[in-house]
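Exercise 7 asks you to align residues with tokens for two separate proteins.
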Amino acid sequence: MAKSNTPSLNYNCAFCKDNRDFDLPVQLIDDLVTGNVVLFAGAGISTEGSNVFPRSLYEEVEDTLGNPDPEAGFPETMSRFCRQPNGRSLLIRKIHERFKKVATIRETFLLATRFHQALATVFPLQLIVTTNWDDYFETECDAIPLVIPEDLAFWRLPGRKVLKIHGSINNLGSIVVTAEDYEQCHARLREGVLGSTLKTLLATRTVLYAGYSFRDPDFLQLLNLLRTEMGELMPAGYAITTDEASIGRIKKLALVPILTDATHFVEVVKGHLVEAGRMVLDQKYDMVAAAQEYLGEVHHNLAKQYDPRKQPALVFALAYQDGMLHAFDVIGTKRRSGYFSEAGAAQRMLGKYAELSACKLYEEQYHDVAYIDGFAAGLRFFIDVKQGSPIRLPAYYIYGLGSADQPPSLKEFEAMLPTVASKSPKAYAQAERMANALPDGVVIHHRAWL
């Protein structure tokens, strides 16, 4: 067991009061690194978390019923609500409106998705199972949703998958909410292809439960069946919880309880992966975003102040900046999948662009070479930038110079512009042709493909 390094708890803070110190199982980390972990996510890490709404969906529905049954569970209460005229339609509408409320206020949305956003950069975690209806794993973690049996035809698509066994808010008819729905869902899980896939995951992978109450009857029946069939050969399972009262229930299911906040758990895991050299700091993405904003202003000013028909070398400088801006776009967008969070991923992509640059140079496509140089510079920036260090962005570009010899400022760039013609006559001639072909008032731009 490795110890998490948790600072002293502030019990007056709604977000850090549950960030408890805990033992981090070494086997769990090893399984995660090798891609052998499947996450099972429940409502506690989504809209039903204690900090999102003042009252749960169950409490809201229960209050609308006359003489509510305190012994009734979630499915039974929902079934009772649906027995009124147009009951199911009203319930689905209530659920839909609840999600709309979350999306309306940024603070509420961030509270509902804080776990998902933390999880996004954990690149080895590629398989998720959830009973939640929200689409946060899709929007925040770039996961492909698998909701109906036909979706399994796309299982081999690259990237994260999320198996949504209780339906999706994006397919309102698929939502599992009443006792009758749970019975039908159990039958599908017991006999159908989605259930077979779920059973295979549970029987062959280490399962990490987060935000799950272990009260869904359909899933518990399936889990108990698997445990009966596999006995001691059932893979290890871990359950993250902030509820000390649930520890006994978790242990009865032969799972290892981890008493801490789920988002905090993810952050601690990422810290271990960074220390082990397997992952880069999330803060790199913030530094890329800041650099992109700065470069966008430089790019706009350069295009506005100079005429490429008078300074043809500007054609390459703008293409270079387009390439770097597009590289930053790719890095920022792929944060949700964790692609660049894997140590070495950006370096591997940099090698591919070096090969592509050589091909374009051979073909005398100098405008493309400048664009690739910019894209490569964006990748190198992500690789080299360090938290707390000054951000030095190679924003200016003279064709034919190596990355280490590029002008560090606008003043040096202006002084070096006339040298392009002598350093690369063929490239300069191409830039002149492109600049002279530009209509009045049109800024030359390199599109995001080659």
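Second protein for Exercise 7:
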Amino acid sequence: MSNVRDFGAMGDGQHDDTAAIRHALEMHDGVLHFPRGEYVVSQTIVIALKDVGRTTIHGTGGTAKILMTGPGPAFEFRGTHTTSADPGSFRPDEWERERMPTLRDIEIEGRHPEADGVRIIGVMQPTLTGVLIRKVRHGVHITERARNVLISHCHIFHNTGIGVYLDRVNLHQTIITGSHISYNRLGGIRIENSEIRNLQITGNDIEYNNNRAIKVPDADDVPTAEIYIDCGETGTVREGTICSNTIQATYSPNGANLRIIGQSTAERQKAGMWTISGNLIGSQATNIHFTSARGITLEGNYIYSGHHRNLLLEQCKSILVGTNCFGHNPDYKEKELCTGIRLVDCTDCTLTGLQIQDAQAGEHTVAGVVPIQRDGLIECVNCQRLTVTGIQVLEGSPYAMKLENCSDTLITGCSFLDTRATPLTKAAIHWTGSGTGNAIAHCRSNRPFVIEAKVKLGENFLDA
């Protein structure tokens, strides 16, 4: 174990320890040990694994702190891995010198506006455990290429950029688990223009990732999200799980809790093949927002109090929304936020087994909130081949369900009820525009159905 104090590091929060730490890294025996103290670093400590060999950086149970006073990451792990994670694709030197570099039990604090926490490039099995990163720009920045990344039991907190930033990276087999990722201005976990496969985000607390706590002037409306997946320009993001997380926020005008942006191609396969289950998601402008996504299952979540919509799907295909509870927090009483689901230009989507309940007032009752504008608690516009089955919609306003220019849509076995003492729901279903091949069957409602003539009952089936 190479103790950085033995190579001249002071750890007193005053002297620049960069040169001493670099010297210790050159001479280390595999473990770079930081005793309790505050170590000033003015330039990035680059761990070039092909040169220094297998490396662990250890901060003595979290009692050591790195004060990054210059631009760039405090630590950069750099490897030479260029292939897949297939065991047969590795060069012997990778296993001998580069595998599983580890950063654990240490704090990194930024003292420069362009300071970052950790950067990972070309590394196999990088592992971050028990790391606290705060007051930097980006907490963990992964770029170019990486495989088998593990981020576990970390605190990535109150940073001006992104918590975990997957930036134009070719990345497979990654797990982010058991961590707090909160108060990062441009997103908690954010993927941009990357090739991603097998990403698991599970058991985390991911909250408040917008400008409210950072207070950059005139930046409140910059689009952000707790989990932000953007392959709108290039890249594909597939084969992922978002499970058992708390994902919630304070409101920001263009904010979302979960935002996935694909590419508007004929196949719409740039972003998809995801399972989203068992999460608590709420309190943003739009809680879940998918654009040009394909092949996502959303089930077993509680999704609540979206200022604009709880769920917004645009130009999506093969999205299955099932057995979720969409609602609000009735404990807030005079501070309720409405709920709502909207699908626009979507095909081959299914809504099943949902419980959806609006606020009793049928409108926002939080002081100062932008009033909601909508036609129904569920809105479907220019959609094809939708299946809506076994859902219960309560207290919809002004309509429980509004459809416009939809074809080949089946609505069956649903309940549309207004249980308020003075009903506000004008109609259970209000269907306008044109469309063929539609059917409404075996539904119950205490409010009327309104189907305009252009929907042509001769080409549809109504048995409600």
